[in-house]
Amino acid sequence: MKRIAFLLAAIFTAFTASAQAQSYQAAMSVLEIADPDPDPAGARDLEGFLWYPTDAAEPLTYDFDSKVWAGTRVVKDADPAKGPFPLVVLSHGMFGNAYNQAWLAGALARRGYVVAAISHPGTSTWSRDPDLTRQLWERPKDISRVIDHILTSPDLALLVDPDRIFMAGHSLGGFTAVALAGGRYDAARLKRFCGTTPDELVCGILGGWKIAQTDQDRTQMEADLSDPRIRAFAVFDLGGTQSFSDASLARIDRPMLIFGAPIMNSGLTLDIESRALIASLPSGKTRYIEPETLSHFDFLGICKPGGFELLAKEEPGDEIICENGGAPRAAKHEMIIDAVTGFFSKS
């Protein structure tokens, strides 16, 4: 009898916690941020989306339409629920876009977070101008500009809690997160590293992009790009750990949740990336998770049935991003969502 009562209590507790965690519907609207100080060569305008909690239940639609990717159900342009709510800013990976972590954004909005994501000019799906790609220091600044915009916008400032700002990034977005946490680019360290391991993916990419190859660019890259307003970070299988100085990593004092993906199907080497990062950070405020079945591309969306085959036909080689991208990936997403919300709620 006691066992039955215990089980019923556990079930009720779990049900109540689930209901509280999913107490809102996710709303979504377009996010556009004009460059406040445009360069004569061209403005760096930012475009993306804002997901936020709403009490509106309909009309439900999908946040985007794709033959490959399953969308997230949202109420577009709905009135927001009464805030303030914590803010999470997302940063996509190399040549990704603001849709890449829509699965996470929608889930966070349903759990009471405002989430902003933009497509980084120069390193996004639709913007690959080599001159913009070279300006990698602009990526962390993009995230700070998103926070500036939200905190100063009359329509958005009351929606967010300025003392509860978080950031999550995947791959190159993880690199962006570390820079915002206080990691300082170290061109000399990267040069030494790539001199002995030239075949590592990060060496080919950053070298090909001509990162920090002039004195002016090096000064920009090695500047302090941190943003003290961000309270904690989630880093998803980052690349570029070896480009940060050891001393700067050892000084990072904000909480950091780091996921490493042991299925290394992206070209990144876990020992010199996520594992090396967690080993370089001060202990006490970090958490490291490395599920044995996790791959680099599991941080992208869920693939529709036939998505793998469609990519294999139309973009040969890209189909790897949809490998096990259906139900197995959906289960991993739930684990990631729980870990991120649990970590942020305690930070």
From TrEMBL:
<protein>
    <submittedName>
        <fullName>Putative dienelactone hydrolase</fullName>
    </submittedName>
</protein>
<dbReference type="Pfam" id="PF12697">
    <property type="entry name" value="Abhydrolase_6"/>
</dbReference>
<dbReference type="InterPro" id="IPR029058">
    <property type="entry name" value="AB_hydrolase_fold"/>
</dbReference>
<dbReference type="GO" id="GO:0003847">
    <property type="term" value="F:1-alkyl-2-acetylglycerophosphocholine esterase activity"/>
</dbReference>
<keyword id="KW-0442">Lipid degradation</keyword>
<keyword id="KW-0378">Hydrolase</keyword>
<feature type="signal peptide">
    <location>
        <begin position="1"/>
        <end position="19"/>
    </location>
</feature>
<feature type="domain" description="AB hydrolase-1">
    <location>
        <begin position="88"/>
        <end position="234"/>
    </location>
</feature>
<dbReference type="InterPro" id="IPR016986">
    <property type="entry name" value="UCP031982_abhydr"/>
</dbReference>
<keyword id="KW-0732">Signal</keyword>
<dbReference type="InterPro" id="IPR000073">
    <property type="entry name" value="AB_hydrolase_1"/>
</dbReference>
<dbReference type="GO" id="GO:0016042">
    <property type="term" value="P:lipid catabolic process"/>
</dbReference>
<keyword id="KW-0443">Lipid metabolism</keyword>
